[in-house]
Amino acid sequence: MSEDDDKKKAGGYHGGGVDTVISVDEVTRQAAAIAEDITLEQLDALAGNNPHVSINNLVAGYGQMEILHNLDLRVAKAQSLCLIGPNGAGKSTILHAIFGFNRIFSGSIEIGAGGDKRDITRLTPNQKLAQAGIAYILQDKSIFPGMTVEENLWMGGFLKDKPQEAKQAAEMVFDKYSRLADRRKHKAGVLSGGERRLLEISRALVMNPEVLLVDEPSIGLEPRFIDMVFEILDDLQNQEGKTIIMVEQNAKKGLEFADIGYVLVSGELAIAGKGDDLLKNPKVGELFLGG
């Protein structure tokens, strides 16, 4: 095979074929070049002018390092938002900021609408889960492999007042997902990749959250399991009314799923639009969807 053939078969940004491999720095440069001026009015409109989660002029990062620069975000109740962008753009940092995993220098995070809106910027992760109904589903490997599936689910209810409440919530999960019910006494470490991801999602559901922060739902999964995970997320949004904010490197899959898409570049919002519109945007397609 010639060198030219090698280039033609090279992958783009996590999916699709392009003529050449583009470095992260080059993707960042090109993405910054197509950035648009985005107003709060536009973000509000994408959230149906009734946002349930609002981020306002947020500056956040780790230690003394600022990663997010004056970021705004809006997503409505029972709506989904997918964050895409090059590595290092600050996508996971947004999830960390919402849940309280990093340092917030300035700005605010609010949940609710109208008179029910609350500032949750300074709440701890436990408080955000228990009081604001926000759950974080980590990228991968967050289960306890030596515990059974059932015990892992019980751990998801660690903030409930009584252990029995967690067990009752776990039974509701088993009723919903027979795949887990069939393996309830199995050690979690023997589950397939798709089953582990289902367990991670289900463990977050034991606390019955309103908002799900989902970090890389498709990472490390076979295509058939990726489809299963997105079907579960679709059910949680459209049948149970959960609000979903996700980071997804498989930009095509994420935008196909989500109502709204944000493109992040160097800690700032570069492009925002409906998921379907971003899929059709040739500039987004060239950089993130494989051409």
Explain this structure to me?
With 291 residues, the protein is an alpha/beta fold. It has one domain: Rossmann fold (3-Layer(aba) Sandwich), CATH 3.40.50. It is 39% helix and 23% strand. The protein is built from 13 helices and 10 strands. Helix 6 crosses helix 7. The longest helix is centred in the C-terminal third of the chain and has 16 residues, at 223-238. It starts with a helix and ends with a helix.
Strand order of the largest sheet: 6-7-8-3-9-10
Distance between the termini: 23 Å
Task: Write the CATH homologous superfamily.
Answer: P-loop containing nucleotide triphosphate hydrolases
Mean pLDDT: 89
Structural class: alpha/beta
Order of helices and strands: HHHEEEHEEHEHHHHEHEHEEHH
Q: Overall 3D geometry?
A: globular
Number of strands: 10
CATH class placement: Alpha Beta
**Count of discrete structural domains:** 1
Nearest-angstrom radius of gyration?
19 Å
Helix coverage percent: 25-40%
Unreliable runs: 1-20
CATH topology: Rossmann fold
Major beta sheet, specifics? Answer: 6 strands, mixed
Beta content? 15-25%
Number of helices: 13
CATH architecture: 3-Layer(aba) Sandwich
Short description:
The chain has 291 residues and is α/β, with parallel strands linked by helices. It is built from 13 helices and 10 strands.
